[in-house]
Amino acid sequence: MVGVADVRAIATTIWAPAQAPLSLRDQVAAAIEVPADQVTVIATAIGGGFGRKSVVEAAIEAARLSKAAGRPVKVLWNRSEEFLYGFPQPMTISDVSAALDESGQVVAWDQHLATSFVLFTFFPGFLRWLSGSDGGATRAAVGPYSVPNLRVAATVRELPVPTGTWRGLGLLPNVFASEQFVDELALAAQADPLAFRLRHLANDEAGQRMRRVLERAAAQARWGATLPPDHGRGIACCIDAGTFVAQVVELRVDRSNGALQILKVTAAVDCGLVINPDSAVAQVEGAIVMGLSATLKEELMLTDGRWSATSFAAYPMLTLAEAPAIEVVLIDNRETAPGGLGEPPIGPIAAAVANALANASGARVRTMPLTPTRVMAALADADSISTKEVLP
Description:
By secondary structure, the protein is α/β, with parallel strands linked by helices. The chain has helices spanning 21-32, 57-69, 79-85, 125-131, 171-188, 193-198, 205-220, 277-296, 349-361, 372-390; strands spanning 2-7, 12-16, 39-43, 73-76, 93-100, 106-115, 149-156, 231-240, 243-253, 260-270, 302-303, 306-307, 325-330. It folds into 2 domains: 2-77, 2-Layer Sandwich (Aldehyde Oxidoreductase, domain 4); 93-385, Aldehyde oxidase/xanthine dehydrogenase, molybdopterin binding domain (Aldehyde Oxidoreductase, domain 4), CATH 3.30.365.10. It is built from 10 helices and 13 strands. The strands form 4 sheets. The chain has a 4-stranded mixed β-sheet with strand order 3-2-1-4, with helices on one face. A 4-stranded mixed β-sheet has the order 8-9-10-13. A 3-stranded mixed β-sheet has the order 5-6-7, covered by helices on one side. The termini are far apart.
């Protein structure tokens, strides 16, 4: 987080990596008590933003200091300050239940998610009231399937600690919950997870687009082919920003320590007309790697009112050596206007990993990240259930 301010008698200039330059202009004007038309914001290269740089506190600090000092001032946060004063993605809990009929078809789906502010952190009170709900927190909470009796509700409350945006906003945790549950329903219906998804799609344009990406991802990943012991495949999908995404993860689980080795991710994407294929593929690959990092490693804890990590030494992320092979298939759909692509591909990855783990071992981990400790506990539970089933 960085900003440079040059506050003068009748004009102020700000240089900052701002995702919302006009908003930053107004914030700076209020901070130094000048009219907004006297403030010029020059937006520099943003780097990793993902919504966090909708507010650039360093630039506001620089403006206050420049006004007091009567000279240009640069404020640069260090990594520790980034961790301590940033806006982590809020925790999310989903409670999902469903009913199947005699044929194994879902006839009712009831879901309630509880989380905190994502976009509302950056909204003034009256905008929160006008919006009614935090759309960032509930993003993709409703899945792509046709269910006759459907209810999805959300409770969003402000926490004592600030929370905010992250790539995809609520997309990753919401799809993590719903697409894992779809796999559990398929198991209850004694159906293949891919076939189960396909038969619950509506026979409309959206259903046809989702069917294409599911079938294409599965075909490219050789869905159904025999795998070695402790290897598994998992599938998941979502619709976001007008883009349809399906992903298949192939992984290996080490039963001795709970480590997951992601071997390959196959993604099929229908984002409508593709303008730049190389850029499109890069967006999908980047979203998958970032999503895998959150799925397997990234976690913040609160200790005595402070975040547990103040550097990447205490906040591990996926490394290049751990990145899997990634195959991206772009569906040719030139008749449809381009949809979003920076965030939709992050949606299915966590659920696909969890579903692949269950396929490999019978172990189901419903809490992110899927750390070795959580995997080992799930493996023990799965072994216990398996042992009970064979006892007289």
